[in-house]
Amino acid sequence: MTTIGILGSGQVGRTLARAAVTHGYDVVISNSRGPHTLSPLIHDLGPRARAAHAHDAASSGDFVVLAFPYATTDRLPAEALAGKVVVDTNNYMAWRDGKITAVEAGEKTIHELRQDMLPNAKVVKAFTHVQHHPPTGLGPEDVPDALPGLFRLARPRGAWDRRALAVSSDYPEAVELVSALYDELGYDSVDNSPLSESWRSAPGTPMWRHHVDGQTRAQLVANLQQAVHPSRTHRTGRPQI
């Protein structure tokens, strides 16, 4: 049975852990405060989940999810992640993370910086434009059970309204792994590789406007193509002509 290591126990980590155990995966999850703080979550997730320190979670996973924002000060278990597919769920948000010059200038994406941080791993951007928390400001009549988007928008293969999610990596095997996982969780996939193209699915791009209610594969492809590179954008957000 495949085991997923998840580093981070916030909304993203918790939601992906729940989706994973629901689909028969084993999960080893960690956070920055220690395994003892995860007891309620592990109890809720059931016997397929256990808590661990970051190095153990990274070592135990057949592949690993990073469920926390990028920071230049991150100290990741690089040796334990070497050779593995590492799913980066982060979005660059300067208001939250502080401005990163290379990203602001359009020289590198946040996911290329993560790959630089983990040169021996196979970083893949995934799960970045589907909500991992219940929508706010909507009543139960609008969102039954107020489910996170990852669950609410899932559809069986072949459904006319099946949504799609983008995936970007410099490694085809990482794209293949994530695409299969998307399909299992109820989504089509769109390969937006390599990592240098992952800016097309960043916050503020055309496809991002649909991150609450999702978009079909054809719509996602079109929206990715319409994105304007940050290097052609003024600080006002208006494309240069």
Structure overview:
The structure is a single chain. This protein is an alpha/beta fold. It is built from 10 helices and 8 strands. It has helices spanning 11-22, 39-45, 54-60, 78-81, 94-97, 101-104, 110-117, 149-152, 172-185, 217-225, and strands at residues 3-7, 26-30, 49-51, 63-66, 85-88, 122-125, 164-169, 188-191.
Keywords summarizing the entry:
disordered C terminus; 241 residues; 8-stranded mixed sheet
Mean pLDDT across the residues is 90
Strand order of the largest sheet: 3-2-1-4-5-6-7-8
The CA-CA distance between the termini, in Å, is 53 Å
- Count of helical regions: 10
Strand residues, percent: 5-15%
Largest sheet: 8 strands, mixed
Q: Could you say which overall geometry the principal axes of the C-alpha atoms support?
A: globular
Order of helices and strands: EHEHEHEHEHHHEHEHEH
Q: Which structural class fits the helix and strand makeup?
A: alpha/beta
Which residues sit in consecutive blocks of at least 5 with pLDDT less than 50? 234-241
Number of strands: 8
- Radius of gyration in whole Å, from Cα? 17 Å
Give the helix level as a range of percent: 25-40%
